[in-house]
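Hey, quick one: can you model this chain's 3D structure?
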Amino acid sequence: MPKSSVVRGETASAKQEADAGRERGGGIQSIERAFSILTQIGQHDDGINLADLSKAVGLHTSTAFHLVRTMVELGVVRQAKGTKRYHLGRMIFSLAASSSSEVDLIATATPYLEALAQDSGEGSHFAMLSGDDVVIVARGAGTGAFQLVERAGGARPAHCTGIGKVLLAGMDDTRFESWLRSAKLTALTEKSITDPSQMRLEVEQVRQAGVGYDDAEYNEEVRCVACPVYDFSGQVVGAVGVSGPIWRMNLQRMEHITQSVRQTAAQLSEDLGHSPG
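Sure thing. Here's the predicted structure for all 277 residues.
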């Protein structure tokens, strides 16, 4: 075979594709192809073989092989030894985990909270767990009169707040039961849940509905609705909520606000890499 027809094992057609990519955009096409490969691999939970991968991204098999082999060497893709199928590598998950730090979460969540506050007219907030404590880490100021002050950094009890119930619902059973054994279910109002069995039932309802409510359980003049925020791995990393005075948060407004909170939580989750299954 003529020497010119083989370059590091590539076929002539594969080399022509690579050359075309370099001529078109100085390597930009290769980056586009790499992201197409990552996207296809990420869509296959059981991995994908080379033939199906090259077909899915519209590349010659040899070209796809050299791109994905480089990605394997970089750690963004891994190949299972037994099946030879390709999966997302550790580096992808490490990068995603790094971007899910508290600071990045706050920066990502803040614009959504501001938009939610504008839409609802009520104060919005984003909460996370710090140990077993529920902490408000970011907020958006509402536009209506008589606004509630949800100070960033303030702690809230989990058992009688919408955001707290959502974060409890995101725990696995073992962790939730551990929390329940040590939790003080203090009655802050006459509506606060103080019975462990009722708390279990409430958390299960939140898991099924995907939304948590506080109906004057923390403050007798306040109602709150909250929804979970998920990261790329499907774990609950926070809760988005809206709080307002009872006389303004009537049934009709609660329905509208619940939909807005759901949408905001879904959009923020998507920004964090979550793909609902």
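One thing worth noting: DSSP finds ten helices and eight strands in the chain.
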